[in-house]
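User: Some background: our group keeps a shared notebook of sequences we're curious about, and every so often someone picks one and asks for a predicted structure to add to the entry. Today it's my turn. The entry only has the sequence so far, pasted here. Could you supply the structure so I can complete it?
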Amino acid sequence: MQRPSDRWVSIALSVLLHGALVAALVYGWLVFRSPPAPHPTLAIEATVVDSRTVKGAPHPPPPQPVPPAATPAPAPAPAPPEEASGPPQPTPEQLAQRDEQRRQAEAAAAEQQRRAQEQAAQAETQRKAEEQRKAEEQRQAQKRAEAERKARAAAEAQKRADEQQLKAQDDRAREDLQRSLAAEERAAVTRSSAAVANWEALIAAKITRAWLRPPSARPGLECTLNVTQVPGGVVTKVSIGQCNADPAVRDSIEAAVYRASPLPPPPPGVQFDPDLNIDFKPD
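Assistant: Of course. Here's the predicted structure to add to the notebook entry:
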């Protein structure tokens, strides 16, 4: 028959065995994580003894249960050499490579800046060239406009000169025509005046032949006769204008005009005039 004390001894031994196994597992895991390095090997040897097999051995008091906190914690794994000594120092090759990369970066930045400056200079040159081209085009346009304005002004001046010349020629031609017409008119008037004078002289002679001189008529008699006739020379009306005779002589003159009807016709080239002014001078 098993005693209670034997049961507690078995439990204590089992707990110790399991704690050792757990510690071995934890230590092996830590060793697997860290780089290989010589570590001391821990060995745990244990022998399970049954108190019933030992005769005459005193029975120890039942073991008290060990709280879990009393279990010894596993020793921490040693830190890797890299972590213990800090970040590794760069090698000369790495330093040279870094310097080369820095120089390349500086050269690339300088090249990029140079290209940017060249592009800016090229853009500025193009801008100035474009401004000069526009200015030249504007000057050419102004020159063309000025030339066109001068050409129009010259054409207008030539047109005005031609118009003035034509006008002067027309004026001279008109003046020549007027002078010619005036000369012809004067010649016609002269011819007509002579013909009319001859016609009036014929009429006055016919009236004188028909006049019966009264005793009161004085020498130097002069009278203006206003005679109205119709085509064919028939007298329709007689009036005496300026006259130095007495009424009896005036009446005799009027009677002489009616007796001289029909009056002589106008000569060729003289227009018929129904109203005549005859100077009656019988002496």
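Suggested note for the entry: The chain is about 60% helix and 10% strand. Helices lie at 4-33, 81-85, 92-210, 247-260.
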